[in-house]
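Narrative of accomplishments. A recurring question from our advisory board has been how the design workflow behaves on a single, concrete structure rather than in aggregate. To address it, we present the structure tokens for one chain from the evaluation set, followed by the sequence designed for it. No filtering or post-editing was applied between the two.
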């Protein structure tokens, strides 16, 4: 019973991991950037939301305002990448986002760190139903629905629509796409904005369960990347499942005293295992 309760509680965390991972995958698939600053951008949006709410703005308005902050900040990052690094290699682009991540964390800790604690609201904490004697909250349901929608929508968009075809073209051959008349910068900004808003929403969902400091929230890029790695940086459904599984695994681990204090390192373990597994052929299949 205790493990079932922890697993269900882990769905909330896993849903947020999945949402963050899916927004990271969206950025990679459509603008060819492994964005290490994704969670830091989302944290700025989440803190903007809570500060506006504390200032008296109703939560129903503060949430979209925070998502807008995340979208605008992410568009600013996207403008840098489009303007100066559109033809750079993926490694160079990733290095740029790491540098921006470092700067955002430094600024965020200064503005919102431990010296400025905030209480994040939990509007969906009320019970929805009981499963096997375990209470399932509306937070778990809302998080799951959002994660599933965000996994399904890009897959349908990319495969079934004309705009999806244009997005794939600008991702794979941005210069060629621009030469044939596709407005690459505009499409890129749309992608960056959507991913930034989704990241901010993911942080808002998971923030009540974390320490209220900026650094802890910016570090959520680690489980997000673990989920994306499970999806092989290609699959939206597998990234969704990877994020959910990671959240459930951490929830169950919290009930085992022997590993309880180490559950925070599980995303690093998952990243290591996936990397070793995917590269096994390079070493194990070499002739003796």
């Amino acid at each position: 019973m205790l493990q079932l309760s922890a697993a269900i509680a882990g769905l909330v965390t896993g849903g947020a991991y999945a949402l963050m991972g899916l927004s990271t995958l969206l950025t990679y698939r459509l603008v060819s950037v492994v964005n290490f600053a994704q969670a830091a951008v989302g944290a700025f949006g989440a803190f903007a939301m809570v500060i506006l709410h504390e200032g008296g703005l109703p939560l129903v308005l503060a949430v979209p305002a925070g998502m807008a902050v995340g979208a605008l900040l992410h568009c600013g990052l996207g403008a840098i990448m489009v303007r100066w690094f559109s033809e750079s290699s993926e490694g160079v682009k990733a290095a740029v986002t790491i540098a921006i991540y470092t700067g955002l964390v430094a600024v965020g800790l200064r503005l919102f760190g431990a010296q400025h604690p905030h209480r994040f609201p939990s509007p969906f904490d009320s019970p929805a139903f009981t499963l096997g004697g375990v209470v399932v909250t509306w937070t778990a349901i809302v998080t799951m629905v959002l994660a599933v929608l965000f996994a399904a929508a890009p897959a349908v968009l990319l495969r079934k629509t004309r705009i999806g075809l244009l997005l794939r073209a600008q991702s794979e051959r941005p210069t060629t796409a621009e030469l044939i008349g596709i407005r690459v910068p505009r499409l890129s900004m749309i992608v960056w904005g959507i991913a930034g808003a989704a990241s901010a929403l993911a942080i808002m969902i998971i923030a009540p369960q974390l320490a209220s400091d900026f650094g802890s929230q910016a570090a959520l890029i680690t489980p997000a990347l673990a989920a994306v790695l499970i999806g092989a940086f290609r699959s939206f459904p597998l990234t969704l499942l990877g994020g959910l599984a990671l959240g459930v695994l951490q929830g169950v681990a919290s009930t085992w005293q022997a590993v309880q204090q180490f559950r925070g390192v599980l995303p690093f373990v998952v990243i290591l295992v996936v990397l070793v597994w995917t590269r096994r052929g390079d070493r194990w299949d070499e002739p003796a």
